[in-house]
Amino acid sequence: MDLSLKIMQINKFNEYILQDVKTKKTHRLILEFYGISPKVGDMILLNEKLLDPKSDLYVQSYAFEELDGKENNLDEMDLAGLITNNKKHILKRMYG
Predict the structure, then answer these.
(1) Residue 93 pLDDT > 60, yes or no?
(2) 10 Å Cβ neighbour count for 46?
(3) CA 68, CA 4: separation in Å to the nearest integer?
(4) How large is the average pLDDT for residues 48-77?
(5) For the segment 17-62, what is each residue's pLDDT rounded down to a tens digit?
(6) What's the rounded Cα separation, in Å, for the pair 61 and 86?
(7) Dihedral (C-alpha) 23, 26, 27, 31: value to the nearest 10 degrees?
(8) SS3 per residue for the chain
């Protein structure tokens, strides 16, 4: 299941304050984006396991780059979505 997270604030050192649109729960993550620049008010779609501290996949820092191909299924753990100005971008999680 993907979570819809609204970007509420972007602080120094790429600290993003995100709010779950359903539960209103706030998350603080370090996010880096390559090839795209999200802004306050944009929406990020992430797999909920990436935000669960009990999950083996959880970290507090993620990096993403825009995926060139058309991928509509965000069930894959390494994919995320970014909605800016009503346009959906597919992002691939980067490692290393």
Answers:
(1) yes
(2) 26
(3) 22
(4) 78
(5) 999 999 999 999 999 999 999 999 999 999 888 888 888 877 879 9
(6) 26
(7) 100
(8) CEEEEEEEEECHHHEEEEEECCCCCEEEEEEEEECCCCCCCCEEEEEHHHHCCCCCCCCCEEEEEECCCCCCCCCCCCEEEEEECCEEEEEEEECC
Report the amino acid identity of residue 23: T
pLDDT (0 to 100) of residue 1: 47
> How far apart, in whole angstroms, are the C-alpha atoms of residue 82 and residue 1?
16
* Position 93, amino acid: R
Q: 4: which residues sit within 8 A by CB, 6+ positions away?
A: 20, 21, 22, 43, 44, 45
In this prediction, residue 96 carries a pLDDT of: 63
Phi/psi at 89 (5° precision): -110, 140
Confidence of residue 70 (pLDDT cuts 50, 70, 90): low
Token representation of residue 48: 């909920």
Cβ neighbours for 54, distance < 8 A, ≥ 6 positions apart: none
